[in-house]
Structures are given as C-alpha cells and as structure tokens.
C-alpha cells in the first residue's frame, strides 16, 4: 500500500464518516493538535534516557490516538467502533499527578519553563496540549463533542507540568521562579 493517495491534494481530507472537509476545518485543527502533542511526547520519551516516565507516556500516547480517532469521527455509528476516553483515563492522570506531586515542594510562584532537556520538552508538550485543549473547546462550541475530551486534555496538561517539575527535581535542577519587575 502506498503512503500517498493524492486525495488530499485539493486541500481536503476524509473523516470517519461521510464526506470530506477542508484541512483547515476546526475538527481537523483539533485532531491535528492532538497528533502534534503525540509527536512531542515521542520526543519526550526519546529524551527520557532513564525511562522515568516511559510507562505513563506510553499509555498516554495510545490514549491520544483514541482522542484523535474520536475527534475525527463524525458519524455516530462509527463512535461505537472506537475506544473512547473514559472517566478511568482521567482518574489515571490524576493518580499520576498526585504521585509525582508528592515528591515536589509546594508551588508558590510560577516557574519558568526549562531545566533539563527532558523537562524543557515536557513544558513544550504542555503548551501544545493546552492548544489542543483550546481547539477541542472551540470545536465543541460549534459541534457537539464528548466533554470528557477537553477534561482529559486539561488534566494531561497538568500532568505534563508536574512531570517537568519532577524531572528537574530528580535531576537536581533548581526551578527558576518567575518574578515580576526588573531582574
């Protein structure tokens, strides 16, 4: 099977359902941002030489394919054929947040993104996750979606932030707190 089909050469793409839409459609923007997030998490895993977060990130990457599939599905009859994000998936993220956060000092100020290359990439993934969340919320404003998709992305962004802080702490890197005013 060839990787190229030429069907998108006109700027359209197919969804899981009838018809084609513009590659700039809100639905495509939403699942495209989720796909971009997944690619960033692949980079995070490549940087995680100690495999500190590999088990969790492996699960998350698979779940993001589920999120993307649901976002790409326009026909209700197809929704029953795909694995969808559930309350348990959100609970998993919350459990991981709580476990990692227990090892961190209390957050009293904003922290500047950075630290180790691994933590910096986790911060970048967090910002992409927030964009994906915004795209899903924007799509939901014009087409009904399962609200749990936005909840999952919201919680995932929180987890990525905590993971970045945790990786810096584990590596012995002190976080740089943001201070307003002159440096």
Note the main attributes of this structure.
183 residues, mainly alpha, Hypothetical Protein Ta1238, Chain: A, two-stranded antiparallel ribbon, 6 helices, elongated
Provide a descriptive summary of the structure in words:
This protein is mostly helical and 183 residues long. The chain has a single domain, classed as Hypothetical Protein Ta1238, Chain: A, CATH 1.20.1200.10. 59% of the residues lie in helices and 3% in strands. It contains six helices and two strands; from the N terminus they run E-E-H-H-H-H-H-H. The protein has helices at residues 26-47, 54-71, 76-79, 87-101, 117-142, 148-170; strands at 12-14, 20-22. The chain has a two-stranded antiparallel sheet. Strand 1 and strand 2 (20-22) form a beta hairpin. Helix 1 runs antiparallel to helix 2 (54-71). The longest helix has 26 residues, at 117-142. It is elongated. The model has no long low-confidence stretch (mean pLDDT 95).
